[in-house]
Design brief:
By secondary structure, this protein is mainly alpha-helical. The protein has 6 helices and no strands. The longest helix is centred in the first third of the chain and has 30 residues, at 2-31.
Length: 125
């Protein structure tokens, strides 16, 4: 159980740290007017999804009411979008929805940074 908690913390820490780094990178490119690379953005989105799937896989080991077939990780990877809200609701109820909101905010953190820069340039300057 302790090993899965360590993995969960590692995955969430990596998810948060890499989201912040990607957002800073997107904000710097936007600030300087450089067109961001679609390949890099797609790579970041793929890494984000992989980290979410790894976290769900590690987290589900702490909940005996979650059925984990042999191919659980692969199934979560292929059906992550509909399964993530269901999993968070089933395991954590209302707190799971807040956690889902946190994941969504991390996913769109770069866009929020660009929005702040846009609003600063056009309305505050």
């Amino acid at each position: 159980m302790r090993n899965t908690m360590r993995k969960q913390s590692l995955y969430l820490g990596a998810l948060f740290s890499l989201s912040v780094v990607a957002a800073i990178y997107q904000a710097i490119l936007y600030w300087h007017g450089v067109d961001e690379s679609e390949n890099l953005l797609a790579t970041w989105q793929f890494i984000f999804i992989v980290l979410i799937v790894l976290w769900v896989d590690a987290d589900s080991k702490n909940f005996p009411n979650i059925y984990r077939p042999f191919e659980y990780g692969q199934l979560v990877f292929f059906f992550w979008l509909p399964y993530l809200p269901f999993y968070l609701w089933r395991t954590r109820r209302a707190f799971g929805l807040l956690l889902l909101l946190g994941f969504v905010l991390l996913f769109f953190l770069g866009y929020f940074a660009q929005l702040v820069i846009y609003l600063h340039r056009h309305y505050l300057s």
